[in-house]
Amino acid sequence: MYRIMYKINRIDSRYCVGCGTCVTLCPRKAIGFSVLGSDIVAIVDESRCTDCGLCVLICPGINNVYVDDRSVLDSLLREFRVKAVYFGWSRDENIRFWSASGGIVTSFLRYLVEKKVVSYVLVTKHRFLSAYPNITGRVEDIVRSSGSIYFKTFTLAKLGKLLELVRRGHRVAIVGLPCMLGVVRKVLPRKLRERVIFIGLVCYHINTFWYLKYVFSKFSPSLRAKPISVSPRKGGWPGKIVLRYRVNNSVKEVEVGHFSLWNAIPRFEFTAPKGCLYCYDHIAVGGDVVVADAWHPKFFGKDTLGVSLVIVKTDKGLELIRKAAEEGFIELIDAKSVDAYTAQYRNFFIRTIQTLVRRAIFYRRFGVIFKFPREAFIEILRLAIISLLERVPFIYAYAITRVFEKLIYIFSVPSIEGRLYIRYRDDPQLFFRTIKVLTLKT
Ligand SMILES: Cc1cc2nc3c(=O)[nH]c(=O)nc-3n(C[C@H](O)[C@H](O)[C@H](O)COP(=O)(O)OP(=O)(O)OC[C@H]3O[C@@H](n4cnc5c(N)ncnc54)[C@H](O)[C@@H]3O)c2cc1C
Ligand code: SF4
Ligand code: SF4
Ligand code: SF4
Q: In total, how many domains does the chain have?
C-alpha cells in the first residue's frame, strides 16, 4: 500500500466528496461546510485546528487520492465471489414506483424496522435544495427518503450520533455510498460492527454543485425563473428528477429524465470531485447488501415500475434479505455474478480501469513507482469481454430511450441554457446567494 500524504495534515477541500464525517468527528469542531468556487465542501477553521490529523486519516476523498490501498481492489475482485446476486423489487407498488430503482432499500429498511431487527436507520432525505441525513426509527421517514440524490449529501455528519446509539447497545442500519460505508467501518470498533447493517448504493460518482446550477439553467422555463427545489431521482424506472422554479408568482415544474441528468457531462466525469476520480470502490466492498439499478437487457426498456440489482456480500446480509423476502416485503429473483457485471459494467470495469490509469499517472509526480496489477487487470478484461456480449441488447434499448428523452426536451423546454449560464458564469456565487443551497442541520 502506498501512502503519500506526507504534506497533508488536515483535509484538503478540493478532494471533498461530501461524506460529512470530518465535520462530526473533528475533536475541535473546527470543520464546517462552505462554498468554495462553485461547490460546497468541508472547510477547516485554521484558528481552531490543532493539526491532529484525524480528519486526514478518515477523509475518503484524500485517501482515494493519496493512499493506494489495493486491498479494496483485491477484495472487489475476490468479492466477485459474492454470497448471492438477485434482481428484486418492493412488494409495495407505491414504494417500488416512488423509489430510485426497485425500492429494495426502502422496503428492506421497512422490514428491519417493523420486525425490530434494528432500532434506528440512517437515511438521507431531500428537501428543496438541501440534503438532510436523518436517524430515524419511523417507517414514514424511511419511505419519504426514497430516491437517489446525485449531489453531495454529507450524510455522515450524523455519524457521531449514530455511533453513540451503537455504543449504547442499539442495532442500526446505514444506507450510504461505498466511501461512506468505508469510513464507518474504519471508525467503528470491530466488536460493535455486528450491531450495524451496512446497505451500500453502487456509485458512479457524486456530482459537484456547479452541475446542479447548470441543470437548473439548462431546463429553466424562462429567464426570470428562480430555482426552488430539485427532487431525488424517482418515479417509475429509470425515473426522473423534478426541478421546481418560481416564475413570477407561480411555481413551474420541469421533469428531467435520468439520462438527461446523467448525460455526457457527468458521464465523462467533468462534474465529479477530484476525490471520486481516484476511487476504487464503486460497488461498496463494505456493504452487507449492495443495491443498484438493474441496467440489464432482461429488464431495461421493458419494465417501468422499477427493478434493482441486489448484491449480497455477507452471511448476515444474506440471512436478512432472504427473511425480508420470506416475510413479503420484497420480491427476489435469483441471478448470477455475470448478471451483476452486465448490469454494472461501467462500475465494475470501466471505472476500475480508469482509476488504475489515473493513479499511475498521478503518482509519477511523487516519484512513486506504481505497480500495475497485471493479473487483476487481465481478470477485469476477461470478465469485461464476457459481460459486454451479454450487454449488447441493453445498448440498443439505451440508444432508443436516449433519443426519446432528447425529443421530449427539444419540443417541450425552450433551451435558454446559454444565456442563463453566462449570467451565472460571470458571477459564480450568484447561484448560491440566490438559492441558499444546503442549509444542512447536523
Ligand atoms: C450518487 C449516487 C450514484 C449512483 N450511481 C449508480 C450507478 O452508477 N449505477 C447504478 O446502478 N446505481 C447507482 N446508484 C444507486 C441507485 O441510484 C439506487 O440508489 C439504488 O439502485 C437503490 O435503489 P432503491 O430503489 O432500492 O432505493 P430507494 O428505495 O429509492 O432508497 C434509496 C435510499 O438511498 C438513500 N440515498 C439516496 N441518495 C443518497 C446519497 N447521495 N447518499 C446517501 N444515501 C442516499 C436514501 O436515503 C434512501 O434511503 C447511485 C446512487 C447514488 C446516490
Ligand atoms: S470527503 Fe468527507 S471527510 Fe473528506 S473533507 Fe469531505 S466531508 Fe470531510
Ligand atoms: S487536523 Fe484535527 S483539529 Fe484540525 S481540522 Fe482535522 S480533525 Fe480537526
Ligand atoms: S465515486 Fe467513490 S468517493 Fe466518489 S462518491 Fe462514489 S463511492 Fe464516494
A: 1
- Listed residue (230, 210, 291, 208) closest to 17, CA to CA: 208
User: Residue 110: which of 372, 380, 421, 329 has the closest Cα?
Assistant: 329
Q: Which ligand minimizes its atom distance to the CA of 285? A: 4
Cβ contact 309:335 at 8 Å:
yes
Kindly report the protein residue whose alpha carbon is nearest to atom 5 of ligand 2: 16
The pLDDT score that the predictor gives to residue 441 is 42
Kindly state whether residue 298 falls inside one of the protein's structural domains: yes
The C-alpha atoms of residue 14 and residue 19 are separated, in whole angstroms, by 13
- 151 found inside a domain: yes
Kindly state whether residue 334 falls inside one of the protein's structural domains: yes
* The three three-digit cell numbers of residue 414, written as one number: 425552450
Which of 5, 13, 19 best tests ligand 2's pocket when mutated (most atoms within 8 Å of CB)?
19
What pLDDT is attached to residue 103? Answer: 97
8 A C-beta contact, residue 12 and residue 62: yes
Q: How does pLDDT run across 296-341, given as a tens digit for each residue?
A: 989 988 877 999 999 999 999 999 999 999 999 999 999 998 899 8
Q: Which helix (H) or strand (E) holds 172?
A: strand 172-176
Residue 439 counted as domain residue = no
Residue among 75, 31, 68, 79 at smallest CA distance from 51? 31
Strand segments, DSSP code E, in 189-301 are 196-201, 226-230, 240-247, 250-257, 289-293
Q: Output the CA 410–ligand 4 centroid distance in Å.
A: 32
Supply the Cα-derived Rg of the chain in whole angstroms. Answer: 21
Q: Which residues form the domain of 222?
A: 1-434
Q: How buried is 208 (Cβ within 10 angstroms: 0-12 exposed, 13-18 middle, 19+ buried)?
A: buried
* CB 271 near ligand 4, within 6 Å: no
What ligand 4 atom has the least distance to the C-alpha of 180? 8
